[in-house]
């Protein structure tokens, strides 16, 4: 098949997040399909932006995937600059639609840009090409900005998002959701649930060393921090990922004095809250906390496999009733970590896999108690938890598995659409 994949924020291993479009597309290419990825030249989630994009779109091939970068204005934050960036990308893809339909001749068109407005340009191209239309849902917009950022449901941006979301549920042949508990919400907005498939986030086995093989060596400062904690006889608790408010790292720091002196915390990453969190560590004299800059993606497996316990936390937010799909959690499980999960959500992969403990969110006492419980376990018992987590990911959350599941949903949805469009006998 020819698969046209529209994802404003698509990245690659060399550019950074977002990774899901790259990994799915790479698996589809390996299965013999042709994938054309459409993305913007400027994205706030990438570590760096694609080079050589001038005033016209630039085509590039990465690991067999055809990327087309559309030039969009740089921006910061979630204000008018981001709106202009989104509008520029959508307008260029809309204008390019007839050429893409005639030249690439897609069999499948996927709208997948986190925000829902790309469904309109995807729908146009799919209709021109006679292709199966897929609406891939990362987060529920406009519900996410309404519940997480306090946006009014009558805000013009929220109204536009709502119209686009409703169009996706109404017009797509297939709706693919990363969140597992969305059935009621989507049905209430007009989706026939026969067209819904759940395809969560996952990991790529290619990014992980084979059993018994050494991983990518750690940067010196990270290796030294881990070695010093080990030499002091500490149980090492680690975190790797973004440092923003949704990641509940304040709760972890609040738990540090209660967790006891036998633990050392190594936090690796970057984000809007990193400087403030580092100031907290210094001001409160948290000498058993080491904060370090982000490490390359290739070093993440090595770092995680060196931990005794991995922490992931969430804020207490109603939006999580629809489920969670954190990339870092899949990494934690693939690394064989015993996980302390601080969350209240519609799903809980840690509990499903039996690979750690789950405690309430934003509760420092519960986090401290959970860490003490995990630290008190014999190393062999924590290792058994980790093995259960790894087995869970390998069976259900690797991209070779997820890519096939996605295509099976496309095939099923396409068959339903053909049946619905077929003329009825008198």
UniProtKB/TrEMBL annotation:
List GO molecular-function terms, semicolon-separated: glycosyltransferase activity
Top-level taxon of the source organism: Bacteria
Q: Which residues form the Glycosyltransferase subfamily 4-like N-terminal domain?
A: 16-202
InterPro entries assigned to the protein according to its UniProt record, in alphabetical order: Glyco_trans_4-like_N
Q: What is this protein called?
A: Glycosyltransferase family 4 protein
List the source organism: Aquincola agrisoli
Lineage of this protein's species? Answer: Bacteria, Pseudomonadati, Pseudomonadota, Betaproteobacteria, Burkholderiales
